[in-house]
Amino acid sequence: MEIRLWEIARFLGCVIEGDGETLIRGVAPLDQAQADDLSFYTNRKYISRARLSKAAAFVVGADDREQFPGHPLLISDNPYRDFARVVDKWFNRPYRPAPGVHPTAIVGEGVQIAEGCSIGAYCVIENGATIKAHTVLFPFCYVGAKATLGEHCLLYPRVTLLERVSIGHRVILHSGVIIGGDGFGFAPDPQQGYFKVPQVGRVEIADDVEVQCNTAIDRGALGATRIGRGTKIDNLVQIGHNVEIGEHSIIVSQVGISGSTKIGNWVTLAGQVGLVGHIQVGDGAIVTAQSGVAKDVPPKAIVTGSPAQPMIENRRALAEMNRLSSLRKKVHELEQRLKALEQEKNE
User: Fold this and answer.
1) Catalytic annotation present for 71
2) Which GO terms describe its cellular component (predicted)?
3) 162-194, pLDDT tens digit by residue?
4) Which of 173, 262, 275, 343 is the most buried (most CB within 10 A)?
């Protein structure tokens, strides 16, 4: 693949600074780029790497152009996104199997498989399932009875969709994802132990969602667990029954969301966040890594800590905690002085 820089600029709608005839044959990070690679720069923590980079050209923001004197540049209002667009258009060639149903696949009665689909080796598709056009199932996937998959979906090996799960269009599910398992519902019974509460609901996943490896999304106890359009979910996430997540939210690795909690649109839950059940997180809120959320989070709030609290309050509390040692020392000194004064008075 060979592209001139001006072609990339035209595709992105970016302004070029420098030689538009610069030839691009690859893409790479700053510290690995070679003389014919395109790279990008967004984080000033990596300025030393940028200055030493061998890349042919860079995608940068307007405020960072001075960091690259003499280098061809693409000036972008969102360098990370535009670099990703370049990779996707010219350098992203993932393997996709040819359409058709592999002879080892097991397809039940009443299954509807539309044109252009690829069903890999040893897949199992149960009775009444629907798979719409151009969807790909890699080997060893399981699609439960009456489940529905939209168009242009991609299921990597060993994805499990249990009965009546509904998946929208252009959804990507990575290996080990399990959607529609029972929620964790048990009613205590002093005589019998715990009585399993039947989980008779479903899961509904909207268009353009991506769920990465070994994440579990439980079906509703009653009603549905819902994942909104464009939401991205990282590896090793647990989403409990009847959770509702809005559109374009980011759920990072090892997050656990307890049942019936509602997450708004454009919310970010950073790594290892835990949320109790039956609370709400408002649109645009950010919960920082390893926070424990036990109550509602207002829209656009940034909360941190365990228990989670607004970031300003958390920092103030940490500052006070760091003063405890000096305060303890001062209190001890005052106690000694008071004791000495009392002794003098008694004498």
Assistant:
1) no
2) membrane
3) 999 999 999 999 999 999 999 999 999 998 899
4) 173
